[in-house]
């Protein structure tokens, strides 16, 4: 059943055409554009329009510009899941991020499988910003590492962290669908959904998590913070993100553009950048809080 006139235009493009095709789709009034990889070299752009008229104009414009094939689909309860037929297993470091409805690949030596169904949340593994962070987790998570995943979406990063032995793992997101998706994906990968080792998934805000520590058993700071968010959101949350990193701890921010990430990470001082990884024009930046020694902090000298 179509819902409220919302319409999706789906365009298949070469990687070199993504920017120009996106500009064309935005120019016709797209409310959002999502880029998805396919089994082949080409990418899918899914542009959402509030009304069918602008969507039809955008599709005509895309066809006139030589992009093909172009599809126009009313958004339906089923249509919102149309991307599922194009989903493929994705690699992130030694992890295979596998859509749960597909036959999993046979993992090679040292490779691991993560089965994922994001439902309507973000975090299928199809986006570079997710894979960039997932690929870093083997180096950053050890048994007992405490993890706070800010903007957990499907829980993809939290579940990998839990599988690597992180505890506690706290997963927060403003999206009310996220906690259910996190628990679903935890169960799918044999991470406990209650009791010891379970991921604490909720829609609490970062500020609430930071301040709750004063009145509960939760840690006040975490060894590792994961924040795959957009630049303006990271900027808004910067003070609380910094406050939640333990001495010697690490913050990974992702969702930043390769040509302008420094403006965002400058706001995360005194954390310092220790690594930048990049894919398809996106970067993930790893920052660390130095451990303050007595010699560096005169208040501690006797
Ligand atoms: C790019 S997705 C990342 C999902 C998943 N962590 C991944 O790596 O694929 C960003 C997520 O952040 C959530 N989000 C946006 N603003 C937020 C905020 N202020 N606090 C917490 N979550 C937020 C969105 O709902 C979305 O699920």
Average pLDDT taken over every residue: 88
CATH superfamily label of the largest domain: Vaccinia Virus protein VP39
Our count of domains comes out at 2
Q: How many β strands by DSSP?
A: 14
**Oligomer class:** single chain
The sequence of SSEs as H and E is EHEEHEEEEHHEHEHEHEHEHEE
CATH architecture of the largest domain, by name, is 3-Layer(aba) Sandwich
Helix content: 25-40%
Q: What is the radius of gyration?
A: 21 Å
Any low-confidence stretches, pLDDT <50, length ≥5?
A: 297-302
In spatial order, strands of the major sheet run 10-9-8-11-12-14-13
Largest beta-sheet characterization: 7 strands, mixed
- State the helix count: 9
Briefly note the CATH topology name of the largest domain: Rossmann fold
Strand content: 25-35%
Rough outline: globular
Cofactors, ions, other ligands? S-adenosylmethionine
Distance linking N and C termini: 73 Å
Structural class estimated from helices and strands:
alpha/beta
CATH top level class name of the largest domain: Alpha Beta
């Amino acid at each position: 059943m179509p819902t409220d006139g919302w319409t999706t235009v789906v365009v298949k493009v070469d990687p070199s055409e993504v920017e120009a095709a996106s500009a064309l789709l935005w120019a016709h009034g797209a409310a959002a554009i999502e880029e998805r990889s396919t089994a082949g070299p080409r990418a899918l752009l899914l542009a959402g329009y509030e009304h069918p008229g602008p969507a039809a104009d955008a599709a005509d414009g895309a066809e006139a510009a030589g992009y093909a094939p172009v599809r126009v689909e009313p958004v339906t309860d089923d249509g919102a899941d149309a991307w599922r037929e194009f989903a493929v297993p994705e690699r992130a470091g030694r992890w295979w991020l596998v859509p749960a409805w597909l036959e999993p690949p046979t993992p090679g030596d040292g490779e691991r499988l993560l089965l994922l169904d994001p439902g309507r949340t973000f975090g299928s593994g199809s986006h570079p910003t997710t894979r960039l962070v997932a690929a870093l987790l083997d180096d950053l998570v050890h048994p007992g590492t405490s993890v706070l995943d800010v903007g957990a979406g499907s829980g993809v990063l939290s579940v990998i962290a839990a599988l690597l032995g992180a505890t506690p793992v706290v997963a927060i997101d403003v999206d009310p669908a996220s906690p259910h998706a996190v628990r679903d994906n935890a169960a799918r990968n044999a991470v406990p959904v209650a009791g010891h080792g379970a991921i604490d998934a909720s829609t609490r805000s970062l500020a609430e998590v930071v301040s709750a520590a004063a009145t509960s058993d939760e840690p006040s700071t975490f060894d590792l913070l994961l924040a795959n968010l957009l630049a303006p959101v990271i900027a808004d949350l910067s003070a609380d993100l910094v406050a939640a990193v333990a001495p010697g701890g690490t913050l990974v921010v992702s969702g930043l553009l390769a040509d302008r990430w420094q403006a965002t990470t400058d706001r995360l001082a005194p954390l310092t950048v220790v690594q930048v990884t990049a894919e398809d024009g996106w970067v993930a930046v790893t920052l660390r809080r130095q451990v303050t020694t007595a010699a560096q902090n005169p208040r501690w000298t006797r």
